[in-house]
User: What shape does this take?
Amino acid sequence: MHSPSKGYTMKLFLLLLFGSSLFAGNINIAVAANVSYAIDELKAKFAQTNPHTKIRVTLGGSGKLTAQIKHGAPYELFMSANMRYPQALFDEGFASTKPFIYAQGALAFFSVKKRDFSRGVQLLSEKSISKIAIANPKTAPYGKAALEALQNAGILKKIESKFVYGESISQTVSYAMIAADIGIIAKSSLYSSKMSHYKKNTNWHPLNTKLYTPINQGIVILKQGKNNPEVKAFYDFILSQDAQIIFKKYGYIIQ
Assistant: This one.
């Protein structure tokens, strides 16, 4: 006859054995390019409490990712660079949750060369600057915000012939480094390990936030991830204090 303690131990062993495999799996998420600099740290923090979940990340411009979702891409969760795209997905039945703000993005000037940022936006009109990298405003919310800022500063028409467009904010960073004299990029990119050696007020400077509408970034669980508990766990994590600390570390504004 088995002792109660041995039976309990066996049940506990089986629960742990099958429980770990039951909840282990992959989740596919679509992530706006500006979050690419923080996503590895976010995944690592999430893995501390969810070690069996593997997260497959697809990065891109929010507009392009939205188009992919509408054409059947197998994403289960979407972290957008604005609220408009996830709201549209919810309204059209592609998302199972209403969009919720997980962070607020910010723009910054960036140049490999030393610049006099005390001139503000007017710096872009200098003759020494012939190419300005910005994200494509048709597919990247950060590009749209950059155009709005330049329009509100009354300088857009004067400099728009200088624009070099990146399809995402991460591509815009690359252009700013190798193909342009200066760029208007996501502030978050400047806190990545590859960019951290560039100095504030020498190589980069925040763009006046009063010049553009706040970049509220929205998250939604998509239809394909509706019944996946691991997707819900990652969604909850992104909205948690632990994630907010990481976002703040990467230059995002946390309300």
